[in-house]
Automatic annotation (TrEMBL):
<feature type="domain" description="YNCE-like beta-propeller">
    <location>
        <begin position="226"/>
        <end position="348"/>
    </location>
</feature>
<dbReference type="InterPro" id="IPR048433">
    <property type="entry name" value="YNCE-like_beta-prop"/>
</dbReference>
<dbReference type="InterPro" id="IPR011964">
    <property type="entry name" value="YVTN_b-propeller_repeat"/>
</dbReference>
<dbReference type="InterPro" id="IPR015943">
    <property type="entry name" value="WD40/YVTN_repeat-like_dom_sf"/>
</dbReference>
<dbReference type="InterPro" id="IPR051200">
    <property type="entry name" value="Host-pathogen_enzymatic-act"/>
</dbReference>
<dbReference type="Pfam" id="PF21783">
    <property type="entry name" value="YNCE"/>
</dbReference>
<protein>
    <recommendedName>
        <fullName>YNCE-like beta-propeller domain-containing protein</fullName>
    </recommendedName>
</protein>
<dbReference type="InterPro" id="IPR011048">
    <property type="entry name" value="Haem_d1_sf"/>
</dbReference>
<feature type="signal peptide">
    <location>
        <begin position="1"/>
        <end position="22"/>
    </location>
</feature>
<keyword id="KW-0732">Signal</keyword>
<dbReference type="Pfam" id="PF02239">
    <property type="entry name" value="Cytochrom_D1"/>
</dbReference>
Amino acid sequence: MFRIRPVLVAIAFALSATAVHAATLPNGVVYSANEGDGSISEITLSTGDVRTAQIAVIPHNVQISPDGKTLLAVGTPAVKTGGHGTHGGAGGTSTSVKADSHAEGDAGLLILNASELGQALEALPAGSHPSHVVTSRDGRYAYITNADTDRVSVVDIQGKKVIAEVATGGYPHGLRLSPDGRELYVANVTDNTVSIIDTQSLKEAARVSVGKAPVQVAFTPDGKHVYVSLRDEDSVAIIDTSSRKVIKTVSVGRNPIQLYAAAGGSKMYVANQGSDNNPDNTVSVIDTKSQSVINTVVTGKGAHGVVASTDGGFVFITNTKDNTVSAIDTSTQDVVATYSVGPNPNGITYRSIP
């Protein structure tokens, strides 16, 4: 039986990139999914403290629930080898983590207590290769991309089961819910398209050709446009959601991965990861009115995940090659803090604290 294992939470301190007082940052928490060791890091912005907890999957993506009470993490169930790993067991001091594709029930969706990172509340099925997760606006359903089956799995969190498998294009990866909750846009990496899924019928309503290797999508807050990162052509496609057609393509940095709207929707932030051998360390800032790049921000090597604070005043970037998270002030485009997190951080999410 798949069991939720207890975890040890370690505490570290953030490294400030500049002499900025923590009070300038919002009263919130940022979570990063660390694929390097199967952990999640929690950054408390008001203090700069970073806590890292081992979990039972190798997380590629994390998502806060709409009510902020739970954290969803998706990935392949993990098997740890090599003694006690970071506890100094036999064979070394590091933990070896590998995917277990035969874990019972493919329990690749973990529901964690957002206030107590080490407390796993549920382990639910998520399909065989879960990559990204978002929730319905009421938080009842989780939508999870499964790259190896070309499907989006729909999980009823209350019912604790998969209720639908929706066909998409080839190798679905990043996905986002429209602001009105009626549609999911899904980036299909290998067939150069974006699938549009109707959340009522749970069927693919349309498929839009966008460009080479779309990895992630991001809505503008008004829902009129969707920006799509095109990894293999160093650009971002812009879809008009009313016509469901690409209206413009914008050149950005090398190998863009995730992207997110901020500053009231006036700017779109695009993380440029580069390649394994030659990582990029930049974030392209697109003005959503002119639909052109207005700034480039230097963060850390392998810029990958992007999320914004609730008020849009700050953007947070995972730097997967530097094992850090950068905080960008959207009013100045300056990196105001850098936090050390677990190895190879990828997905990222933000929780506001009242």
